[in-house]
Design goal:
2 helices; alpha+beta
């Protein structure tokens, strides 16, 4: 379930209209299970950007929660026996948080780019200034 745009230079761009979940797909913007509507792809792209931004914002808070539970459980500041193992674990949690924020930031950036391209096609029938046309899925 994708929208295909054929650019004049011969490239074909594909944009998903729904997120794949196992063997099936989420519902599309129009409610159909199998569609290639331009508006459904735009709605899906905007949903994905929102979800990825939410994950980016929630990740530091969840890491702080995990760090708080870890510190209260093992008390690495006052108990010298757990201090040697605690510092690498704390650094690992911080590193994982930075990676999650970075990775989902890149996905959000890619989806924003896709939404801009789809909206440009809808409004001007071009993608990045290159004339394009929608190819139907056969």
């Amino acid at each position: 379930m994708v929208v295909k745009l054929a650019l004049r230079d011969g490239t074909i761009r594909e944009y998903p209209v729904a997120q794949r979940r196992g063997a099936s797909y989420d519902r599309t913007g129009c409610g159909n299970q199998d569609c290639d509507h331009l508006e459904c792809a735009i709605i899906h792209g905007k949903r994905m950007v929102s979800l990825q931004k939410l994950i980016q914002l929630a990740s530091p808070f969840s890491s702080l929660l995990v760090l708080g539970i870890f510190v209260f459980t093992f008390n690495p500041l006052t108990d010298p026996s757990t201090r040697q193992i605690s510092i690498p674990i704390i650094l690992l949690i911080i590193l994982l948080d930075v990676m999650v924020v970075f990775i989902f930031g890149k996905y959000a950036e890619l989806n924003r780019k896709n939404v801009r391209e789809l909206e440009e096609f809808r409004d001007q029938h071009t993608v990045n200034g290159i004339p394009a046309k929608q190819v139907t899925n056969q």
